[in-house]
Amino acid sequence: MKTPPCPISRRRFIGQTACAGFSLTGVLSTIGTLRLFNATASAQGLPGDDSKILVCLFLYGGNDANNMLVPRDLTAYDAYARDRGILALPRDTLLPLNLPADDGREFGLHPAMAPLQSIFNSQNMAMICNVGTLVAPLTKAEYQAGGAAVPPHLFSHNDQQVQWQTSLPDSPKKVGWGGRMADLLQSLNAGSDISMNISIAGSNFFQVGEEVVQYHVTPEGSIGLSQHDATWSPVLEGYHALDQMLGRSYGHLFEQEYVNIFHRAVANDT
């Protein structure tokens, strides 16, 4: 097997899809939202015949948010500059944002984010601040006093990465909220051989579902099967031997799932 060249790239893939933002202002509220999706889909289906695509870019913490969205009003900027020290961005380099509320607050984006400035100022983007993976609002005094409900392994970067993807910071969960969405909405995607959950960055917790399986592609495109061809004589013996092995049913769950994946790959490659 090898990865054949494909004309689609990571940049083109993202550029050609409809971008949507899904922010967790309250992480646990996602559960209720998914139930609402399920009820709506079951009761009447979703109108329209167009395609809706949710693109999730998860940076695993690799983003300096304090220098992405920066206060520009003088009092708040002075506090920002004092706290950030040499990391603070000069105020005159910040890209101004048009805010709907006239409360005296001003904000600007990092100078490298000009495309997002225009999207925000055209009211096609929102930013949700001060959200995290806490079980409930918590003050420093409450935490230091002990007894308050907190996520397991609080301050563990790896655990918080998983909690963002599962939306359940107070208990272990084997599926992500993207996978749960796909489980509830997959009936609306009937007839498609391609999974609703497509990843161009390998496996992740976000897209793990109870029923829907992640479909992994590379930044260059899909991974196809090569040399599995009944008309190519150099591999004909191996072709028939492999087909005989994979034509059986297996009692072992992992073995049978491998067979199922192989057959899906062959079907999608034809």
In words, what does this structure look like?
By secondary structure, the protein is mainly alpha-helical. Among the domains are: 10-63 and 131-216, no CATH class; 233-269, no CATH class. It contains nine helices and five strands. The strands form two sheets. It has a three-stranded antiparallel β-sheet. Strands 4-5 form a two-stranded parallel sheet. The longest helix is centred in the C-terminal third of the chain and has 17 residues, at 253-269. The chain is elongated and about 75 Å long.
Q: Gist?
A:
The protein has 270 residues and is mainly alpha-helical. Helix content is 35%, strand content 4%.
Strand order of the largest sheet: 1-3-2
- Rg: 24 Å
Number of helices: 9
Total DSSP E strands: 5
Summarize the biggest pleated sheet: 3 strands, antiparallel
Proportion of helical residues: 25-40%
What is the string of helix and strand elements? Answer: HHEHEEHHHHEEHH
Distance between termini? 15 Å
Q: What portion of the residues fall into strands of 2 or more residues?
A: under 5%
In round numbers, the mean pLDDT is 78
Secondary structure class reads mainly alpha
Question: How would you sum up the global shape?
Answer: elongated
List unreliable stretches of 5+ residues: 1-34
Write the layout of secondary structure elements.
Layout: H1 10-15, H2 29-44, E1 69-71, H3 74-84, E2 95-96, E3 107-109, H4 114-121, H5 140-145, H6 157-166, H7 177-185, E4 198-199, E5 215-216, H8 236-246, H9 253-269
Parallel strand pairs: 4-5
Antiparallel strand pairs: 1-3, 2-3
Helix pairs in contact: 2-7
